[in-house]
Amino acid sequence: MQVSDECEYCELLHDITGRAAALLTGVGLGEKGSRRTGRVRTSDGFAATAIAADPEEIASLLTPPTLAAERALFATANRVRRAAVGDAVHLRAIIEFSNHCERSCWYCGLRRFNRKLPRYRMTVDEVVEAARAAIALGFRTVVLQSGEDSWYDERTICTMVRRIKGIPTPSSPAGQVAITLSLGERPRAEYAAFREAGADRYLLKHETADPDLYRRLHPGMSFTNRKQCLHWLRELGYQVGSGNIVGLPGQTVSTLAADLAFLAELDVEMAGIGPLIVHPETPLGKLAKRNEARRSNANSGYGYGKGSGLTADAMKDARLPADPVTMTLRTVAVTRLLLPLAHLPATSALGTADPQGRQRALQAGANVVMPDLTPPRYRRHYEIYPNKICLFEDPSSCFSCLSRMITGLGRYVATDPGHSPKWPLQGGDDAGQGNPAPALPNPAMTNPPLPSPAMSKGEHSHD
Ligand code: SAH
Predict the structure, then answer these.
(1) Would you say residue 378 lies in a domain?
(2) Taking all residues of the chain, what is their mean pLDDT, rounded to a whole number?
(3) What is the 149 CA–ligand 1 centroid distance (Å)?
(4) Residue of 191, 273, 373, 400 with fewest CB within 10 Å of its CB?
């Protein structure tokens, strides 16, 4: 489906917003007074909470023909976010407890062959203490992330999880902090043991849904196996997070559309989408340097070496020339339309690529921020990419700085663990309800598609 006309694009937005509204009404989520008592179950199983969209339609949504149409996309995603998950922004404290990695992904600075990176492993005690500090500051979700490091075996991770789950949360002593694990690919039995120990969620980005590109960027790994892991996590009752990188070499708008179709098919509870940031000590970094040298005279716009990572190839079927930050924002926005109930972080990679990146994402569909609560002495060594934001912030100033950013956008910081709204309540009757979304039916959603000023016909400028 080719959408070259602004009006046609707005029709498409109208259509998808209508489908989002119908989906929310259909699954009975967010209605005034309704209790969110579980992953949405129908008589014959779990209801899908994703819009069924074909990749061509998604590709069209990703490529607004004008700047006005792009603004309409962001405004619509913001509206759908508000109606589906409210104005709360969930803060997740991420603790990156080991930068050892057995893999050799072509973009990641943690890759095992990067011998320039000083390696560290935090002890279980150190991880638990970092989690305790995060909880004391008000965080209600702790994300434990590492490279793929089997030094932390099943027992060690389970001990970590149990001890952190045992830390009382000050505001609701009966409640528990939510734990997200992000340790990469592990055998099913280990995922099961972690879940048994109390882990609530698992974040495993699929990185790219193009199997061939996946294989080239991840030596010795396969997209099939990645999918298998994600399906195991789903079967084991985790709230599942996945997501992709925007701006990989060889990626096109069609590939990105396949990424989003994959996230919708998996009906993820969370999707982390960030731009590639080139790391010099990786094969992509070396490639970028070579390309940079080659085109040093021809200023051909963005490319590797400028911190962007986006090749002209990546954008070859885009309608507007888009920089990687803009393309990431569009991807986040379209994800919100396809998965109205998902938690979508404004990623640190986006904040690194653009000082306003996270704020822009929060206004284009995102509702989560994941500040880095790794103890400062380790933090700078978790160098998946260079020049990460907030490397030297101390945890307490980080919390207040983010709170200011969030309230400055007219939003508020959630005080609950921020479980997926489609998930069974955890830890008592009211746990997980937290700060409820504005009641649905929301006129803007249920009489869809009421165009927002930005997208109403006749009003948009043809710029
Ligand atoms: N071992 C874990 C965590 C990997 S690091 C796992 O396999 O899931 C977390 C995320 O950082 C990755 O999923 C990847 O999407 C992102 N990442 C790694 N290198 C990056 C880079 N150079 N630019 C942007 N994102 C990157």
Answers:
(1) yes
(2) 85
(3) 14
(4) 400
For the beta carbon of residue 461, count every other beta carbon within 10 angstroms: 9
Locate the ligand 1 atom nearest the alpha carbon of residue 277 and give its number.
Answer: 23
Asked if residue 454 is part of any domain, the answer here is: no
Token pair 């892991």: residue = 229
Nearest CA to ligand 1 atom 24: 276
pLDDT of residue 20: 93
Judge if the beta carbon of residue 370 lies within 6 A of ligand 1. no
- The pLDDT of residue 52 is 85
Q: Is residue 21 part of a domain?
A: no
- Does residue 323 line the site of ligand 1, with CB under 6 A? no
Rounded Cα distance, 24 and 438, in Å: 13
Query: How far is ligand 1, taken at its centre, from the CA of residue 385, in Å?
Result: 9
Give the pLDDT confidence score for residue 445 in this predicted structure.
Answer: 37
Residues 208-218 have pLDDT tens digits of 999 999 999 99
Q: In angstroms, rounded to a whole number, what is the distance separating the alpha carbons of residues 371 and 373?
A: 6
CATH number, domain with residue 104: 3.20.20.70
Query: By residue range, what is the domain housing residue 205?
Result: 88-435
State the pLDDT at residue 332: 98
Q: Which tokens go with 289?
A: 């340097």
Q: Does the beta carbon of 242 lie inside 6 Å of ligand 1? A: no
Q: Is 108 in the pocket of ligand 1 (CB under 6 A)?
A: yes
Does residue 324 have its Cβ closer than 6 Å to ligand 1?
no
Q: State if residue 347 touches ligand 1 by the CB under 6 angstroms criterion.
A: no
Residue 459 pLDDT: 37
Which atom of ligand 1 is least distant from the CA of 385? 22
Cα–ligand 1 centroid distance for 133 (angstroms): 25
Which residues in the chain show pLDDT less than 70?
1-2, 29-45, 171-174, 296-321, 423-463
Among protein residues, the one whose CA lies closest to atom 12 of ligand 1:
205
* Continuous segment of H or E residues that includes residue 368: strand 368-369
pTM to 2 decimals? 0.89
Q: What is the DSSP letter of 194?
A: H
Q: What angle do CA 317, 241, 131 make, to 5 degrees?
A: 130
> What ligand 1 atom has the least distance to the C-alpha of 278?
22
Sheet containing strand 88-91, strands side by side: 368-369, 88-91, 412-413
Q: How far is the CA of 41 from the centre of ligand 1 (A)?
A: 33
Number of structural domains found in the chain: 1
Length of the chain: 463
